[in-house]
Amino acid sequence: MTNRTKCSLNGVHYFISAFVLVMLLIGNWSCEERPRQRSGGQKTVAAKQAAKDTTQQADEMTKEAQKEAEKAQYMEACKSFLRTFYEEADQNYYDDDYVRSNITKKAEKYLIDSYDVECQSHKCMATWLFYQEGNVDIGSLTECIVDAVDENTYRVTCVSSYMSGEYQEYRYTLLIGVVREGDSFKIDSLKMESSEYV
Fold first, then answer.
1. Best label site of 5, 6, 158, 166, fewest CB within 10 Å?
2. What HEC string does 118-170 produce?
3. 114 CB contacts (<8 Å, ≥6 apart)?
């Protein structure tokens, strides 16, 4: 074999070796790149899921905040209704018709059943139960505070003037249940919690 042939074969050898080496490098690079691309795709999917979860959590928090705001608004409306009821009932001397227009049938039955003196109409109501348990003559309402116990139960604490002997005020606290009937609120239950002369 001549030197020239040897050179030619060596050149082919080098070319083939270089070609194989390049192919191996390309194959290796290609194999390494694929998992990275897959991993990047998984990261994108994970990022999209995280964004979706965050959006859902934000929506749930917004809905929860909206429910809480509606509940607070409802409770404030109930408190306002009870304050107005007590102020107007006091001005109307707890007139049966006025009271009846602000209570449910259940509360009306309770007041009728609690009326323990003679009544010709059989529809007389013990409206005094809104401010006393016994036979007490009190003056006008001077203060009325309404606090929410829960969404449908309210603690009403009132002070009325009382001019007899050593006492000047009569304080009483009731638990009153309120429901919504149509567009208006109604008193559904009442229970005296405490009363005292001051």
1. 166
2. CCCCCCCCCHHHHCCCCCCCCCCEEEEEEEECCCCEEEEEEEEEEEECCEEEE
3. 125, 126, 129
Count CB neighbours of 46 within 10 A: 10
Give whole-number Cα distances, 131 to 94, 110, 141, 150, in Å. Answer: 10, 15, 10, 21
For residue 83, give the amino acid letter.
R
**Pair of tokens at residue 16:** 């083939």
CA–CA separation, 191 and 32 (whole Å): 78
- Which residue type occupies 1? M
